[in-house]
Every structure is written in structure tokens, then in C-alpha cells.
Amino acid sequence: MCGRLNTTFDSGVKKLYTRLKINKVIDRPIDRRFVKAADTVSIVRNVGEQRRVESAMWWLLLDQTDNDFRPSRFTSFNTRFDKLNTPQSAGYQAYRSSRCIIAVKGFGETEFVDKKPIHYFDMQAESGGLILAGLYRTWQHKNTGEIKLSCSVITLPAHEKLKHIHSKAMPMILPQNSSLVDKWLDPQFDELDQFEHLLQPRLPQSLIAHQIDRPMTYQSISSPQTIPYD
């Protein structure tokens, strides 16, 4: 998965937020057509009895500056599925106690050959929105006391239906099942074997794929493709 999201807060995504049973909006949901890695995104997480919407930097590892935080030199906007159970990896502890979700309209993919982009695609939910499985971390600045959230999207191997678009990886898209979402967001839920089936490439929803000219302008240059759910 490449580092861009479509976080347009349209009626479909609003309904998705409602179904997520959010009872505390700390930060207004980000409403942007093009969000790139290290930008601010909206995450949903559980804190005590509250299910919150909060802003987070889309880059899990941060470095502290004199008065703020900046993205670490280690690329961490995505966390690979095969690192989740590797001690000392960036996502190991977060997978166990700091899981979140990122509700989006869609995401972008870029295919590279010899480090050169050969095409760009935008993917979006055929209807409503998508729930991407994420991890988050909380940081407190030692000088200012500021609290900052950061996050990453968990990525899986490429799905067979998507390999012509991106041959290496895809985001983990969670089924919109309330019981599963409750477990995912519960920081006390530690029966990780119940998430094992999620670590295989799967499309719980149908997607619409558009080839575009480039990420910043996102003009369609081909007819849309419907990619059916599994």
C-alpha cells in the first residue's frame, strides 16, 4: 500500500462513523480528498469507556524536537503484518494494546518498476466507507508536556484481485462487524489468535478502482473497474 488516503467526509463515511458508536469527538474528522504519509488523519480508539475520534500523525515513530515532534527517519506510516508478532518491532506492543481504526472513503496505490512509478490508482468503497486497521502510539513532549498521537496502517500481502494495480501490498480492511470492531478497539482484549484470519489478503467490500494521472490532481484516465468482494 502506498502513502495516500482519501478521507473525504461524505454521507457514506458519516454513516460509518455513526455505526462505530463513537461517543466522544475530540478532534473534528479530517475531510480531505488527498492525505499523504506524515499528514494528519483521524483515528478512532477506545480510552476507558469512551470511543473517541482524534487527530494523529500518519507516521507511527516520531522524534522529539525542541518544541514539537517530527516523523522519524524510519519509515513507519505502514506496519507490515509479518512484523506484528516480532518483539522489538515498531508495531509489536501497539498491536497488543494500542489498536485503532481509520475510517476512509478510499486509498491510493502506485506501482513502481526499477523505483519509477508506472501507474497510479485510486481505490474507494463501492458504497459507504472503509475501515482500515491501524495502530497508534501516544507521545508526551518532555519540555512542553504536549501529548501527540501517531498512527500507522497495517498492510498485508497483495490480493490476487489487486496485483495488477499494486503487486506488493494492500491495507488491512476490517469487516464492518460490530463484534469484531469492539474487540479490535478494546485495549484489554489480548486473544490475538482471534485476529489471525485478518492477516490474510481479503476484500470484505467491493472496491471501485480508477487509474489517475497523478496523486495530486487525481484525474481519471481510464474507465472505473469494480473489484468484487470475496
From TrEMBL:
Keyword Metal-binding: no
Keyword flag Heme: no
Xref: Gene3D superfamilies: SOS response associated peptidase-like (3.90.1680.10)
InterPro entries the record matches: SRAP, SRAP-like
Pfam families: SRAP (PF02586)
The entry's keywords: Covalent protein-DNA linkage, DNA damage, DNA-binding, Hydrolase, Lyase, Protease
One record GO biological process: proteolysis
GO MF annotation list: lyase activity; peptidase activity; single-stranded DNA binding
EC number annotated for this UniProt entry: 3.4.-.-
Family statement: Belongs to the SOS response-associated peptidase family.
Protein name: Abasic site processing protein
UniProt source species: Colwellia hornerae
Source organism phylogeny: Bacteria, Pseudomonadati, Pseudomonadota, Gammaproteobacteria, Alteromonadales
